[in-house]
Write a structure and sequence with these properties.
Blueprint (H helix, E strand, L loop, with lengths): L2 H5 L3 H6 L7 H13 L4 H11 L2 H6 L4 H25 L5 H13 L27 E5 L13 E6 L13 E6 L11 H7 L2 H22 L2 E6 L9 H7 L15 E6 L2 E4 L40 H4 L5 E10 L12 H14 L6 H14 L8 H15 L6 E12 L2 E12 L4 E7 L8 H6 L2 H15 L4 E7 L4 E9 L7
Parallel strand pairs: 1-4, 10-11
Antiparallel strand pairs: 2-3, 5-6, 7-12, 8-9, 9-10, 11-12
Helix pairs in contact: 4-6, 6-7, 9-10, 13-14
């Protein structure tokens, strides 16, 4: 149904039967609406090109290289628009990008792509052609007149020597203004300027720059080099470069077979031929070639993240969690300012992990005071208190039996195509069981410890799988260490239907 027929329907029919809603492209656009709401202009454009496979569609319209280059130019404009927004500290939006394109079109700055290909003609300045090469090069604008840079801003060097320690030494800026403009010729100022040494220097520098620039253009050709000219004024630029500024002396003589170039000290013989071309040329359409594509874009798939998030891995109800009773080993920390609670908890756990109660007292005290200074915790704890808490903590661990203690034990568990990685704060391996201890910096009230411990259930369940696989132990005790509360809470976690390990 065409657009006009759809507009002729009443409001209810148009509301429940959107125009072209049954078309594949329109369906895909509707599906992308929710996803595109958070995308930038560039991301949205790239998404449309890929999902709708627009390049393949445009290739059927012909003139493939030009159309593909136009697409790339549009993507370049999108990036330019976002760069402008970043520079001006303004928000970028799709509507703003469309306005940006309208402004470029109004200013005739919306250039199309270069259309590069085997049959394309590249139009570049001599400067921009540096470093490139083509089979055929036509050096345009050889009839241009000579211009030096005497007027305006110039750098004047008082010495040929360059001091690398002071690059700007012996150099200054000279700014000469032409008060007569185009009527300078014939004035006394013009005569004095022509006879001045500054004019000679300026002319010499301009001739050297012209020669360097023309050299770049001539050496871009691989097979053929074309010097186009008119009957008048001939190739002035070429003449000046080869005859020390004399532009009336011809460089290439159509009546002579000898050229100005030599090879192995011998002149290169040329075969001059003058071809007169009219202003109108026959247009030749380039042959259409095939465009090589990658395979079609596959349908979107949802992939699981490679790293397992313990907090969301288990579905609701798949774990049975029973928190035990909190058992304190010390009176816990008492701090008036709640802002100091988190750094104090970090200080306690760091010291406990590094401490060994069997070490000499002065060594333990020095380490405690060093950590306290690093955390700037002198106002709410001291070395004696920290060392005493640590000693009480390890005495509590002794209640679970003698065994080997691992600190910050790295664990990696592969489940299907996913991997669970973590560090167990304390792992105690005894003869008949393993004890997993996880530090908690929770600063809430003790009556909320059980609820907080339940949030660690997924982490404990995954750690239990890994430890049982490594050590073969069936009995595993899981403890949450509340650093600020000075105690441990036993947590029983059971998987109702354990997922199979691959």
């Amino acid at each position: 149904k065409n657009r006009l027929e759809w507009l002729a329907l009443d409001d209810d029919d148009r509301r429940y039967n959107p125009w072209s809603s049954d078309q594949p492209l329109i369906k895909k656009l509707n599906d992308l609406r929710a996803k595109a709401s958070e995308l930038s202009s560039t991301e949205m454009l790239n998404l449309l090109l890929e999902v709708l496979d627009l390049r393949r569609i445009m290739a059927h319209w012909g003139n493939i290289p030009q159309r593909m280059d136009n697409v790339d130019m549009l993507r370049k404009f999108a990036l330019q628009y976002e760069d402008n927004c970043n520079r001006l500290h303004t928000a970028a939006s799709l509507g703003g990008f469309l306005l940006y394109l309208n402004e470029m079109a109004a200013g005739e700055k919306d250039a199309r792509g270069s259309g590069e290909g085997t049959d394309a003609v590249n139009l570049l300045t001599y400067h921009r052609s540096k470093g490139l090469e083509w089979p055929v090069v036509i050096c345009h604008n050889l009839e241009k007149g000579f211009r030096d840079n005497l007027w305006g801003m110039n750098i004047v060097a008082e010495s040929d020597h360059v001091d690398l320690d002071n690059i700007l030494a012996n150099r200054w800026l000279r700014y000469w203004i032409n008060p007569y403009g185009l009527q300078l010729k014939g004035t006394g100022l013009a005569e004095r300027i022509e006879a001045s040494p500054e004019q000679e220097i300026s002319r010499y520098q301009a001739l050297q720059e012209e020669a360097r620039l023309l050299y770049v253009g001539i050496t871009r050709a691989r097979d053929y080099l074309v010097f186009p000219s008119r009957k008048k004024p001939h190739t002035k630029w070429l003449n000046r470069c080869y005859h020390e500024g004399d532009e009336d002396r011809p460089t290439l003589d159509q009546s002579s077979s000898e050229s100005i170039w030599t090879w192995n000290d011998q002149p290169i013989i040329i075969h001059p031929e003058v071809i007169h071309l009219g202003r109108d040329f026959t247009q030749v359409e380039p042959a259409e070639g095939l465009l090589t594509y990658f395979e079609k874009r596959p349908a979107e798939k949802n992939y699981l993240p490679y790293l397992i998030d313990a907090g969301s891995y288990f579905k609701r109800g798949s774990l049975k969690v029973n928190p035990g009773t909190f058992k304190g080993y010390s009176g816990g920390a008492v701090v008036a300012d709640v802002q100091n609670l988190h750094p104090l908890a970090k200080l306690i756990t760091d010291f406990f992990l590094a401490d060994d109660p069997a070490r000499q007292a002065d060594q333990r005290m020095a380490m405690a005071e060093g950590l306290i200074a690093r955390y700037e915790a002198e106002d709410f704890t001291n070395g004696i208190e920290i060392c005493q808490w640590s000693k009480q903590f390890y005495q509590e661990l002794d209640q679970y039996g003698a065994g080997k203690i691992y600190r910050s034990y790295p664990l990696e568990l592969k489940i299907g195509n996913q991997v669970f990685k973590t560090d167990i704060d304390w792992l105690i391996v005894t003869k008949d069981r393993c004890i997993i201890i996880k530090n908690s910096k929770f600063a809430g009230l003790k009556d909320r410890y059980s609820k907080h411990a339940k949030d660690k259930a997924g982490w404990f369940a995954l750690c239990e799988r890994g430890i049982r696989t490594i050590f073969g132990t069936q009995e595993i005790t899981k403890l949450v260490h509340f650093a600020l509360g000075g105690g441990l809470l036993n947590l029983k976690v059971t998987e109702k239907s354990p997922k199979k390990l691959l």
